[in-house]
## 1
Amino acid sequence: MMAKEKINETTNKKRKKQSRFISTFKRVFETVPAKTGGILLIFIIALCVLAPVFAGCDPNEMDMANALAKPSLQHLCGTDNLGRDQWARILYGGRYSLALGIIGSLFAAVGGTSLGVIAGYFGGQTENLIMRFCDVWSAIPGTLLCIVISTALGPGFFNTIIALSIGAVPNGARMTRGQILAERTKEYLEAAEAMNCSKVSIMFKHLLPNVISPTIVGTTMGIGATITQAATLSYIGLGVQPPTPEWGAMLSAGKSYVTSFPHLLLYPGIAIGLTTLAINLMGDGLRDALDPKLRK
Amino acid sequence: MDEKNTFLSVKDMEVIYTSAGDIVHAVNGVSFELKKGESLGLVGETGAGKTTIARAILRILPDPPAILKGGQVILDGQDLTRLSEEEMLKIRGDKIAMIFQDPMTALNPLMTVGDQILEVLMLHNNFSKEEGCKRVVEILEMVGIPRERYVEFPHQFSGGMKQRVVIAMALACNPELLLADEPTTALDVTIQAQVLEMIQELKKKLNTSMILITHDLGVVAQTCDNVAVIYAGQIVEYAEKIELFDHPAHPYTLGLFGSLPSMNDDVERLHPISGMPPDPTDLPPGCSFWPRCPKATAACKEEIPYKEIAPGHFCRCHMAGKQEGSSL
Amino acid sequence: MKKKEFSGSPLIEVKHLKKYFNVPAGTNHAVDDVSFTIHKGETLGVVGESGCGKSTLGRTIIRLLEATDGQVLLEGKDITHVQGEALKKVREQVQIIFQDPYSSLNPRLDISRTIKEPLKRSGRFRSRAELMKETAELMDLVGIDERLREAYPHELDGGRRQRVGIARALALRPKFIVCDEPVSALDVSIQAQVLNLLMDLQDEMGMAYMFVTHDLSVVRHISDNICVMYLGQLVEKCSTQELFSNNLHPYTKALLSAIPSTDVHNPMKRIQLKGEIASPINPKPGCRFASRCPHAADACREPQQLVEVSENHFVSCCRVAEIN
């Protein structure tokens, strides 16, 4: 214990005059995996945002003569059944897929966590009501729910995000509530109440940071799933409309060629995989940075 | 000490833990002997290494991170540290039994208490199921649990009753050595008194030797024959109970007594030991107590002899012999 | 043991306080008709075994739990049901120190933020510098080294954590503090340090303590007056000196005899308690200790009253005269 304090003394000086946000942000990227994840994600985002520079051609330009071409120097990732350049489609498609995946998962996490915290903290009837509602909610198959909401709201970027996130809310709520059950008997919550903290402040300032870790991991893991889910919506004409490229849609289009032209499946798959990996690594870094026990 | 009667002898036991690159010196050269039917109290604060000693005797230290680095544990002429794991299995629960601190977690919530005791019994004996059940009922009644409660589950028992079950389990095979690790710390005083009394009676009846681990000097005073005061993984003082309570010699022992609010005299202010226990990854050289010791001198930073200051009274302190009989 | 005289109007007055919990098996009478007063600068010890309702009593008084019935007066004002701003004012004057130094500090807040929290909530401090100064003063007051400002709870040992808990409770200079077993999780040597600290702080700042504990030697050391609780009710109430020299209730006697004494020359003579502890759920009207009491008689099945048998000495036992 004393050794730890000594270490503390030295880090104290370093930590001075740094806002908490910046110091947390810095700590996120202290470890090698988180750094790798961060660089990878920035790289992916840069490629997608600057797609016109790196793509080399229009993602929707058809070249039937060159349909289903294998990867070559001219077409880095080959072409699809309509002769469209895969590389360009992945870069342009990333714009939608990344946004849908990240924002959709974030929405789900925020919604689920809030419900979970409220249910877990208040307990009793409130908890019963919220959790039973979540049970009913999650009894509806995710895809079906997604389609129903999408149909009701109509196509469009923001509506798609809502449709994608709503199915994942009950899961988040259940996970957060489970964590809170173990946490809510701790005396520091009573101490907070005794010093006049409001219920909102107790829930979100004192309780939430102590139960957020599994949610961070779950959310980052869910991003890949959200991207593929978005493809389902596109497939039935509810998500992003063709011919606009999008990773999930590319995957499902490539399905029929899996034996003869696996590259149609491979490259969008790699794109989704790398993105999930990058965000996952960063998520772990964030979780550790928020936990003072893991601080060096 | 009479060599012939020595039942358990621990010699130069040394245990280290490795954690995140640091080496924690949990037990540093502990030696003591125990006769048949005798009870020894190990007294010390959290982290002093009391529980580690007991676990090392029973060889149930988590390995890794814990390593028994040196020393011998000789039980009835047999060195336990050299036995194979199979041979050790026969000794655990049969010759040596341990009572853990928390009765709430030591029992399986899905088994009736009777069956749990039966399981231990059957592991070490060739009883038929009927004989076994009969014996379990006997044991239960011995610790004061009516036979009707054989079929009840742990959650139906109160804390004190659960600890009785744990004790019954430990005593099921008539062990020759009982290791009791803070057996009453989780209990209320009135229940604690009942349990201690019961342990005492059973010990007398079965002539069991016992090592009682506790931080409570009162419990030691009421139950043990000899006392070893542990500080930073070492025995700093060892004596017969009355000798130790009447003539404590080591400054740490004196500090412990000064910290106790007394039931008998009125003290306006307590005299706590200043400072904190040392970091076991970075023990000070010489006497590990000198940074907190009110009488420390330069000599304390060197090797400290463990000497006999009165017959049977050992103390690890330079000053001890010189100020014999006096108190701070 | 301190010998002090207290007079004038009481700081805290508890009148027939009741706290019941609804549990599946019925109603748990955790605190059942408890009355007492505490004066400024006084320490009232509340002793009892686990589950006797002593912690619930403390929490009900300082409004962490809502009372089922009865009244709590703070300086003559009824605070039992105040809400909003008035409750906020009350909470600045009554505080609590918890038993478990591990779970009572938010693991995600460092020491200075933990202590700063109540200061911020009070809105009394305008500038950041003032806040920092006050925090530093509080840390100094309870003896935490300045260099530990930005340490997190897991980096500290139990004794230091408990000091942080004390600093947090003291932050707004309350008049009354409930100490809920503040030293029972600590080692003896550290326990003595914290007890000394609590007594010094009281001498300095003059607040009143309600000291809840199961440890009679600690309570003897720190308290002026003592209440002995058994299953939600007070069974004996008197000055500390009186309790240890002239205790009257059979439960008090049994409790005192059960403490393992460090006196090795006189083996303890324990009063045997037989029988099972009665349940606080839907209790029968009579004396709750009767099932274990060596002196139980038919009269014990009637409801018991806390009666003043001599000056400032209250006992709730119908056979008190016959037993003693």
Note: Chain A touches chain B through three residues (CB under 8 Å).
## 2
Amino acid sequence: MIDLKGIHKTFNRGKANEVIALTGIDLHVAKGEFVVIVGSNGSGKSTLLNMVAGSIFPSEGTVNLGDKDVTSLPDYERSRWIARVFQNPLSGTAPDLSILDNFRLASLRTHKKGLGIGIDKAYIQSVKEVISSLEMGLENKIHQPMGTLSGGQRQALTLLMTVMDKCEVLLLDEPTAALDPRSADVVMKTADKLIKDYQLTSILITHNLKDAFTYGNRILQMTEGKIIHDVTGEARKTIKQNDLFEWFA
Amino acid sequence: MDFFLTALLQGLCFSGIGLGIYISMKIFNIPDITTDGSYTLGGVVTAIMLTNHLPSYLVLPAVVVAGAIAGALTGLIHTKLKINALLAGILVMTALYSINLTIMGRSDLPLVNTPTLFNLVNITADPNQNSFWILIVFVVFITLLIGYLLKTDFGIAMRATGNSESMIKALGVNTDRMKIIGLALANALTAVSGYLITQFQGFADMNMGIGIVIVGLGSVIIGETLINWFSITSVWLSLAVVLLGAVVFQLVLALTLSIGVDANLLKLVTAVFVLLIVSLPKISFQKS
């Protein structure tokens, strides 16, 4: 589903503040695979994710989604296939817009935002039904501005928003980093359920090794712009949580 | 009393600027001061078309297109050349001064014996009251149009662009394009105010736009204060409150003149008044 070939990325090339972010990444993520990426700060995880999303373009190499070469497509065009959840709960939603308006936009991710009014009674009902699956009581607050909710509630809603429209790839960039442990748990379980229910191809970045061990069916570790561990298949099933801790020793 | 009626009428004429600044500043979060130029542009296009006896139904579309082009230019400079929005606005505003002067060919142009919006129909015999009803119909029509636009799927995407750019990009919206459209819309509305004022006062003048952006800012800030006080979230109410702000702003200025403040000090009074409404809520919040 996702194919990265010979990816190099250097920021500020030739200047004093040159940063080599990625060096020679080759990565194939199969359809339905749930990849977890771990690695210390500055190891290139986020750059890699942004490269898949189209927010950053490679200095060298190609990005393919399915059979399509999307190397030069910007993020707003790759949104036809890709949905994202950001580290900051504020980035994935519009705080001054109502929950309903946020969901409406999410429902139109792969469509044109036209000059008709799309929010009608049937639509409101369908949003309420989706939101009630969270069992947080938010279905009665859909006219409230998104900004009045807590970070955990917003992150959970952001996850639901990703499947309001046709979605093939889900990118999760430390979605629980800003949350308390209980909210983080709810958000991770919601993510896992959606990924299974909708058979999404997913990449999760996390610093939480317990989450990395619990979720997903493939683990990558990155250091200095390279993938140094890639555990998949049978090896992934037999790996122990302690093995992950040793990677960082 | 006539004095205040005139102020009310002016306030209604300025509702275009109010809505325009509301769109650029509050919805798109862009400080756009192309306003001074696009307002005069609207007036100049109106005056030159009317004095040349071009069909009056063509004037409004021409004004809207002219204002939209000015705003789109600011948008292009801001998004494609990555230049600060404030500077982009100043550049276009400055360039427009020469363009306005070239179009008009002189520094002011009176409308003598030309048909205008305000003598199009005679609802009542009193010219001021007649203007009032015509303006009300006009302003209600524009407000309904903008309100509908903001409720559409496209309008929601517009509102999200100024609110959470990373989110709306991830949802498939080209934000550069959206900002250009937004600034075009804002300046088209501003030009419509120039169209109304020129016909209302009976002339266009090169300097009519100097400092006019403060009128829009004042309306929006008065409106915003009310929006915060009453926690308004409805799109329709927000627009109505901005219109109210435009009228209140003119009434306050009329009041200061009527109590004998020197007209030369009007811009100073305007600036102090805007400063007051911006700072009052902050001062009172600090105490509590």
Note: Residues 2-287 of chain B form a domain with the ABC transporter involved in vitamin B12 uptake, BtuC fold (CATH 1.10.3470).
## 3
Amino acid sequence: MAASTDVTPIAALAKLAISDQSFSQVKENFESTLKLFEELTRVDTNGIEPLVSPGDRHQVLRVDTDETLVERAELMQNAPAQEENYFTVPRVID
Amino acid sequence: MKWEMVMGLEVHLQLATVSKIFSSSKTAFGAAPNEQTNPLDVALPGTLPVLNEAAVRQAIVFGLGVGATINKVSRFDRKNYFYPDLPKGYQISQFFAPIVSDGVFDIPLPDGSVFPVRILRAHLEEDAGKSVHDALPNQTAIDLNRAGTPLLEVVTEPDFRTAEQVVAYLKALHGLVTYLGISDGNMAEGSMRCDVNISLRPTDTVKLGTRTELKNLNSFKFIERAIQVEAERQQDLLEDGRTVTQETRLFDPELDETRSMRSKEVANDYRYFPDPDLLPVVIDDSVIDNIRSQLPELPTVKRERYQSQLELSAYDASLLTQDRATADYFESSLEHHNNPKALANWMLGDLAAAMNRDGLAIRDVVVTPAQLALLVNRIDDGTLSSKMAKAVFEGLWQEEGDVDPIIEARGLQQVSDTGELEAMVDELIANSPAQVAQYRAADPDKQKKLIGYFVGQAMKATKGQANPQVINEILRKKL
């Protein structure tokens, strides 16, 4: 069972702000999801190869040629902020 | 207490493809911001990645180059973190099933010995975009040209004990990938980036200490210094009875120190999971065999061959095989004139000096391999003395024309015509009765010294163009 401390760091990793009011509801949903996965872990998988993807299809490869699909200005037209051909965001300093 | 450094390396190589790993945008360096992007690179909804065949092929080439296992089935996973230059919120990488694993790369050390480095794995992934902090005031500018550039991350076992070994490995790796033509290995442009995992342990112990990761070291000089500085920092902590914190650190060459990159520590949990947008990559044996049959001769094999077949010294062989362009130049010149030792001397002597002086790389040199070969040929056939050859070389370097026209134009031909030289020697003997008498009276040992006078006079008379060997023969006959 997930402890309440599990919700906070996972929310932080997902950049989710959870209000105090909704916290218990989120925690409950989260725990019921984890419970389902706990059930799955009880299935005996000894001797069974992991299923990488359903079906036996393989990745299709693309020939290495370049192509401009959309001009830059058009591509950036929906960007919330831009300047001098850059997307801009509030200053991030390492 | 005595400490031992233990290091493992992660090197990101930018692969030499025309387009990105999952999209058709260009990968060229130096374009204006965001010019090399398309809807997939900026993570617009509804786009799907399609894997670049050349990136897969180049990863296989690398794997074969270090004798590694090429995994018949590999997969792509998502590495999740938030950063403005990663618009999808995840990086596509190969975490669970890399394309290449378990290789060994033999590194030649300066003392002639070989240092084997175990390659744990090499996996394909996409690069992130670039955050520019100083382009605009109070904002961070995002350029996504680099986003989606194909990278091969090469991870070693913790096999390194000294900074010199690390640098030797990186130089050899640079040589290998440029030979294989899978990366230009340009550190300044970020085509080869290195992270060093470093820890200390008391000598004679087996258990590894806590490590730190030094990130984005972009020159051999900085890498060596960063390792020294970080090892000293860890040693001070441990000797003070304190502990090393496992973290990522940046080297600051100006302050000559490493410092913690705290911002990345928070997001240390990447929650990898298989990318549902990409199916498993399956590689047939026939593809691997085909690539294997087209591999160029590897530098280690070449170096060995230069020594055993061409009888070059280990030192010359290692210099000539350091990068592919140099080896190609040498081998091309050898096809025109089969004198490996002389050609090696010219390449590592006058040619290297001229390149050094003018700051040129072998690719930019105007003297062709055929011209250098002809120049050496003209020494070997007696047309030129080595001194004259140097002048002809200078002429070639200054683009005065081809070898023979330069010899002609600069009047550099050695006089080897026996008739002409005999007449000149006759005159010389007639004009130097005292020296001739002295020579004839001397014992054979003394004569060897005295003949020098006549050779000198003959060279003077021909303005240095007489073939000294021919002169010597004529003198000995006539005196």
Note: Residues 20-41 of chain A form the longest helix (22 residues).
